[in-house]
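User: Show me a protein chain along with its predicted structure.
Assistant: Here is one chain, sequence first, then structure tokens.
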Amino acid sequence: MDVGSLTTGLLTGLREGVEASLIVGIILAYLAKTGNRHHFGKILAGTAAALAVSVALGVILFLTLGAFEEPYEQLFEATAMFLAAGVLTWMLFWMRRQARMVKGELQAAVDRVLTGGSAWGLAVLAFTAVIREGIETSLFLFGQVTAAESGATSVLLGALIGLAIAATIGYLIYVGARRINYGTFFRLTGLALIFIAAGLLSHAVHELIEIGVINFGTQTAFDISAILPHEGNPLGEFLRALLGYTSSPEVLTLAVYLLYLLPVLYLYLRPVPVAVAPPAQPVSTPA
């Protein structure tokens, strides 16, 4: 069992799962509050359909990977890792900006469906709200699995554990639990995922160097494998899976890691600007 890969999978499943559970929990709680419990089945049907599509996408990705031979397999893996890191980064900043408005927007969407359309629109609402999280999860887990190599099973197991915990949190949201500080939760898991994404990018570049697509910056930046190797050492393997650590990085992979990590951390940790309402215009009264 690769503890590092298990942890990265768990963080991904937990983070993405909680986002989806938060959405479904808010919708169900609002339906219950407004006396529309009889529509629960439609929400659950939309959620189940979104999960099925997400799983199907993940299966297709893994089957596609197995059909390639070298060097096309490495090219596909590198592309998948670049894509996963890009999608993850977009998701983190989207959630950071929109978190304060998600509840109100979902409740308004439910009202629109109940008053102006078919009640099965609730299933569509749940599907569209959850499918984004499901696709992101499939892409990101695929990137992690391709980077993990021997720890692929541990990544998937960790993701399942994370999703199970997320489902429990979703139930707590529905029943009205208030003991979870979601702002702190998303902030801390977001920080961890930024390091994972940086590791994915540097690993993708390493794959391209190995097959000769990139032939500059390939010299070793430093080598501390005698102190903390990233293979055969539990701590090194944990740090490699979680933070993208390598004991002998190429100059370019190290540069890519830092050029992503430092500015993204800075932008992510900046306070979210609060929109200020424009000053009211004075109303003139007739003479």
